[in-house]
Write a structure and sequence with these properties.
The chain is 3% helix and 33% strand. By secondary structure, the chain is mostly beta strands. A hairpin with a 5-residue loop joins strand 21 and strand 22. The N terminus is likely disordered.
Length: 520
């Protein structure tokens, strides 16, 4: 019997040795996606070949004694998912772009930025071929009435995947080559606005968020680092990148999924979501691994806090989150559940007090949809939309006590955006993402409507300047002869004194936001 067992063991080892000489399985190609996620430290691992579940002894002389029992499945490694190819900082496609010389010394105050697409096809002489590549122009405009400043031209396929550093020194953008363009040049680029130098940081083909929604690069408030979620071999980690490429570090470096980074206003902490509590590892062959061929990436996790000065990571609490966190100020974080699911029938708003180590649900468990939450800077007041049988605009305090509400204005689901002035004396309310059913509304902190909404200009996506002296928003004209025209508007903090900053442009415009430091 012992001789037979030894014989079969030798045959099994021979079979496995043959199997291991097969060509490595190539990782599944990664399709380009909207949101970047690569990794420098993650070295691509090749998927381990799956041995045959049982060894056929057909080539072995049949023993004359009792047959050897069938090998148990425990000797066969479980199949694992295919690892992603190595993703790292490639730092290529070095080049220059023509940047307006007025930006050579940097910005000294906040400007409003927007993009303008000049599709010349409808204005070319008859018979003139349309340009192969349509360009968009990134503009900034001083809010006090100065002239628009064209910053740089980019292919229109970049769309609004443009991320200004807060100081205005750098501009990150996602380049997607269109028809007639070199398909190998796509990726995440960073433009040094002062020098006009642009460098590709990541190849488009290697950027893959593994199906987790809500990804985008996030600048540190001082503009010195970019936080980004990138895939490693079997999961995702959060990396910090210096815009000049001088540093690139995996700061979470966990075998679990880490995603949705958010900087604290002081730039010390990174809040993020991770599944490490329920899936300690996705590495194949490890104890308690969640890796398997049919496994899907997580879309929820617990809230964690990374101290970027010490590298210490701590779990905030055990509440399961399915949406990105947002900082109200250096002490409070807010999360609205379900906002990434356009079909969600209900949602909740949660508040986390980092100093006290406490958290609470701001909204009641009534199966309503709560969206558009906007907080004043000291986190004492919040305005949000409640959608149920009746849709309401609600004002509440920090713990959720409702102080005022109105159901006079019925916004679509996920169709309300609000923003508080830095001083907390006004809150502007409008539509969102082109759904602008009413004119811009501005309330006082006591929920008094400053003026009736305009009927000639419908308002979306209001945004106060960092100084609080100006209010910007996207307006859709309903006036005769201009019905449907979209422009970018500025007003005073109360919403009075509207003026368009794009009325002389003929193509589509889209607001990017405020950029530039506060004046000294």
């Amino acid at each position: 019997m012992r001789r037979i067992v030894i014989t079969l063991a030798v045959l099994l080892l021979s079979s496995l040795a043959c199997t291991l000489t097969l060509d490595d399985v190539k990782p599944t190609p990664i399709p380009p996606t909207f949101t970047p996620p690569p990794s420098q430290t993650a070295v691509a691992q090749q998927a381990s070949p799956t041995p045959s579940p049982s060894v056929q002894p057909s080539s072995t002389p049949r023993p004359t004694v009792t047959a050897t029992p069938t090998l148990t499945p425990s000797l066969t490694p479980l199949p694992s998912s295919t690892p992603f190819q190595q993703v790292g900082l490639i730092y290529d496609q070095y080049g220059s772009l023509e940047v307006n010389s007025q930006l050579a010394n940097g910005l000294t105050r906040p400007y409003l930025s927007f993009i303008y697409v000049d599709d010349q096809a409808d204005r070319l002489p008859e018979g003139t071929p349309a340009p192969e590549v349509v360009m968009e122009v990134v503009y900034i405009v001083p809010p006090d009435g100065g002239n628009r400043i064209p910053v740089v031209e980019l292919p229109a396929t970049t769309e609004n995947s443009i991320f200004w550093s807060p100081t205005g020194d750098y501009l990150a953008y996602l380049l997607r080559p269109g028809p007639g363009e070199d398909p190998t040049t796509g990726g995440l680029y960073i433009l040094n606005v002062r020098l006009g130098i642009t460098i590709r940081m990541f190849d488009l083909d290697t950027l893959q968020p593994r199906g987790i929604p809500g990804h985008q690069p996030v600048w540190k408030p001082d503009g010195t680092q970019l936080a980004i979620t990138l895939p490693t071999a079997y999961e995702t980690d959060i990396f910090l990148l210096a815009p000049d490429g001088s540093s690139f570090n995996n700061v979470t470096n966990s075998p679990a999924y880490d995603f949705w980074p958010a900087w604290s206003p002081d730039g010390r902490y990174l809040a993020f979501v991770s599944d490490r509590d329920t899936c300690p590892t996705w590495l194949p062959g490890q104890p308690n691994t969640c890796d398997r061929p049919d496994a899907t990436p997580p879309t929820s996790g617990k809230l964690y806090l990374l101290d970027t000065q010490t590298g210490q990571v701590q779990k905030v609490n055990d509440i399961q989150l399915n949406s990105p966190p947002h900082w109200i100020n250096d002490r409070y974080i807010v999360v609205t559940s379900g906002i990434l699911d356009p079909l969600a029938g209900s949602s909740d708003i949660w508040v986390y007090d980092i100093e006290a180590g406490s958290s609470w649900q701001l909204t009641p468990n009534d199966d309503a949809l709560y969206t558009g939450a906007a907080w004043n800077d000291d986190a004492t007041q919040v305005l949000y939309q409640r959608a149920a049988d009746v849709t309401s605009i609600v004002m509440a305090d920090r713990v959720g006590t409702v102080t005022n509400s109105t159901d006079e204005y019925n916004f679509p689901r996920f169709g309300l955006t609000a923003d508080w002035s830095p001083k907390g004396d006004y809150v502007a309310v409008g539509g969102h993402n082109g759904q602008c059913p009413f004119g811009l509304m501005v309330y006082t902190k006591d929920f008094q409507l400053v003026s009736s909404p305009s009927v000639s200009v419908l308002g979306c996506d209001p945004l106060y300047s960092p100084t609080g002296n100006y209010l910007a928003f996207t307006g859709i004209s309903s006036a005769p002869g201009q019905d449907g025209r979209v422009d970018i508007y500025l007003s005073n903090p109360s919403g009075v004194g509207l003026r368009s900053v794009t009325s002389t442009l003929r193509g589509p415009v889209q607001m990017l936001g405020w950029v530039g430091p506060l004046p000294n």
